[in-house]
Amino acid sequence: MAKLFAVTIVLIAILSAIPVIRNTWHPVPDVSAHGQAIDDQLSDTMWEAGISFLASQILLAWFIWKFSGDRPGEKTTKNFPGGATGLVLAAFILVGVEVFALGIFGAKAWANMYFTQPGADAMPVQVQAGQFAFYFRYPGPDGTFGSIHPDMISEANANFYGLDLDHDPDAKDDIVTAEMAIPVNREIRLLMHSKDVSHSFYVPALRIHQDFVPGLDLQIHFTATKVGRYEIVCSQLCGLGHYNMKAYLDVYSQEDFDNWLKKEAAMQ
Amino acid sequence: MHDMSAHAAAHHGPPTSFIRKHVFSLDHKVIGKQYYGLGLVAVIIGMVLSWLVRLHLGWTNYAIPGLHLLSKNGAPGDVMTPEFYLQLMTMHATFMVFFVLTVAPFAAFGNFFLPIHTGAEDMPFPHFNMMSFWTTFVAFCVMVTSFFVGDGPTLGGWTQYAPLSAIGSVGGPGQGLGVVIWAISIAIFCVGQLFGALNFIPNVLDLRCKGMSMWRLPMPTWAWFITSCMGLTSFSVLMPACILLILDHVAGTSFFVPSNLVINDQLQPHAGGSTLLWQHLFWFFGHPEVYIAIVPGMGIISHVLITNMRKPMLSHRVLVYSMGALAILSYMVYGHHMFVSGMNPFSSLLFSFPTLLITIPSTIIVLILIGSLYGAKLRINAASLFALGFISLFITGGVSGFFLAQPSIQILLHATYFVVAHFHFTMAIAAIFGIFSGTYFWFPKMWGRMMNDKLGQLHFWLTFVGVYCIFMPMHYLGLAGNVRRYQAFVVDYMQPLVGVHQFITIAALFTGAVQFIFLYNLIHSRFWGEPAPDNPWQGTSLEWSIPSPPPHDNFGGRHVVVYHDPYQYGVESSTGDYLMQDSPEQVKNAHDEP
């Protein structure tokens, strides 16, 4: 029974590793300027965690195989060579080095994204999250967003941002859309806020994941490097329609983007 | 100290009335069994809820016969609505985390065995101990009522993130009365756990019998002691957080709700609160809670393994120090739940390093457990299989921690099924394997009858393979970006993953059904099992030196004296290859540490 158990553990470990080695399920391909560092970090961690996983399971199985059952002739207790000290040292040195390395390189990948400022020419786009939709806003030709008046927010009147179009000149040319579009290879400065509860802005293809915090304006910046259509989803439980809170992100050439923006402006 | 302490515990005589004996009992053993029963009821509820949510995830429009009986509005025509899915999911997690994973390994086994392990006749404050159980029972009943009042239980997830949890019924079904009931129940639960911790800690510190130094305490008792210290400091944070949440609902306060929120085109009356405050308070409890669930399991499976290996661990003390390190670090790592929450991204890095560091004591524990198998004479039975299974599951859950400790990787994996796989392997399934191992091992002592070991082993095999089939594929779903807490997968890139969900659902239904073998074995053995000898496993710690089941005052009036470290196996004594902890016999190859 012990031997069968040992074989089962090894089989489970190998079967579990096969889809990872074959890359059967993987993140959607990266189309961001900063994403490669994250993917490299994921890959390095997969190697280190994968080897730790297989080695530990196989060692466990081996010892169960080898040391089960009574051995009546053996009167003294055999212990693992080196005892606890060796294993503690191994844990400190092997795992210590491993996590230290992961920590340092991981910190660099994180810092690339969060500890850098957007360039002065980064294009501002605003996103507002609400149950259960995202709305995006472009500042229009004047380059300035109109003020938000929460008391004027009305989905019924399609005034999603609570803009005072009668009195606020900055708001007049603002372009509000239900889908997001950006030009390729242009840095985007995304201004994020929620109008009701916590939500999240998760774009796997762009390697972006940031919660909306009600009461707090947040900002992230990124550059998309490949034209195409991608998906934005909410990953923070926000109510009964959470699963359906999504939007498309279209990455266009600059020319196509300009045309799209003109078309959206005409529809306001 | 020791002589006095033995008398200090003898402050209540054997009960005579039915009520005092079986209901409002002051006996720690009865209270332990009551906690076990509560955990059993809660785990059945939690498991049925998991079946329902898994069925829905596999086949979203499937009509589950009779579901409308649970909620007319939530299941018209027996098909689960999106909100009812979230309500059931929230209740699955709530029952499992609080009323199973906290109650069973810690409060149930701890109550029964901790005083016996320390050589005490009972807990230091038996009335508080009784109140601990009944307070927890009231909390459980309050939580159950949320199914039957208003528009059902809360749908906000067991983490109850504000402001969704604090804005009232405008947030959706269950977000009014459902949240209030949830918060009241959890606040009461915290009081119950504080009563428990206030008994466990002084028992270990002050009621140890003569000769029982701290290092002579068996592994589970060390684990319960460490867990009590964690419970004391973490539940005492969750309780006021829940009270503030209740006040946001009933007193017009705004602790967790900021200004200018607009819901259904209506500007909300709240102003000035902080949504991140809730997350900090919740996770300051929430991460230690992970270890409150898993550390008792580590102690229990160590105890079971040592007895079945017929040799002590490579180092008792290193294991204890490592469990202590987990406990201390658990308060410093909680921010890894909040890497992308919107807190200062520099804080994410600061929380990342202790999170990576906590893998060192975890690795030490795994290596000591595996390394101790070297040279063992391993006995295979249901208890030892579940203990070995615990190690395998803890390794699997542990390595996924490498990913989630890093903020940069959480950009991909946060709030995906990768996280669901990680915490189920560690705090849920490994901890439950600890409960199973403890049950098969201690059942003879608790109820005086043996369990059917063949059925136990069958239960193990089917469960072990089953849980890997359920939770291993969730890692792959997470890698592919499958977000958790979705009731259906309408996002384009997630639609190809539905087949994996269907496989998981079938595995979950199968593995759940297998648990009825355990339930049958438990009930059948309780009444018709073979009578258990006092020491069926040739164990050495104090529970095996007293009758099965133990008498009211544990040691029959004997003032127990301890002469050895707890695990004298592989020795040559007059009893065989082991030496009882309270045996005055001296043997040459004893494993007493100085």
Task: Write out key terms for the chains shown.
heterodimer; A: 268 residues; alpha+beta; Immunoglobulin-like; 2 domains; 5 helices; 10 strands; B: 594 residues; mainly alpha; Cytochrome C Oxidase, Chain A; disordered N terminus
Structure write-up:
The complex is a heterodimer of chains A (268) and B (594). With 268 residues, chain A is of the alpha+beta class. Chain A has two domains: 2-67 and 84-114, no CATH class; 123-266, Cupredoxins -  blue copper proteins (Immunoglobulin-like, Sandwich). Chain A is built from five helices and ten strands. Chain A has helices at 2-21, 35-66, 83-114, 169-172, 254-266; strands spanning 123-130, 133-138, 175-177, 180-183, 187-194, 199-203, 208-212, 218-223, 228-233, 246-252. In chain A, the strands form three sheets. Chain A has a five-stranded mixed sheet. In chain A, strands 4-10-9 form a three-stranded mixed sheet. Chain A has a two-stranded antiparallel sheet with strand order 6-7. In chain A, helix 1 (2-21) runs antiparallel to helix 2 (35-66) and helix 2 packs antiparallel against helix 3. Chain B has two domains: 1-273, Cytochrome c oxidase-like, subunit I domain (Cytochrome C Oxidase, Chain A), CATH 1.20.210; 322-531, Cytochrome c oxidase-like, subunit I domain (Cytochrome C Oxidase, Chain A, Up-down Bundle), CATH 1.20.210.10. In chain B, the strands form two sheets. Chain B has a two-stranded antiparallel sheet. A two-stranded antiparallel ribbon of chain B has the order 3-4. Chain B is globular, with a radius of gyration of 24 Å. By secondary structure, chain B is mainly alpha-helical. In chain B, strand 3 and strand 4 (576-579) form a beta hairpin. Chain B has helices at 2-8, 18-23, 28-58, 82-118, 126-145, 177-206, 219-250, 275-309, 316-330, 345-357, 359-373, 382-404, 407-413, 417-447, 453-479, 498-528; strands at 262-263, 266-267, 568-573, 576-579. At the A-B interface, helix 1, helix 2, helix 3 and strand 7 of A face helix 4, strand 1, helix 8, helix 10 and helix 11 of B.
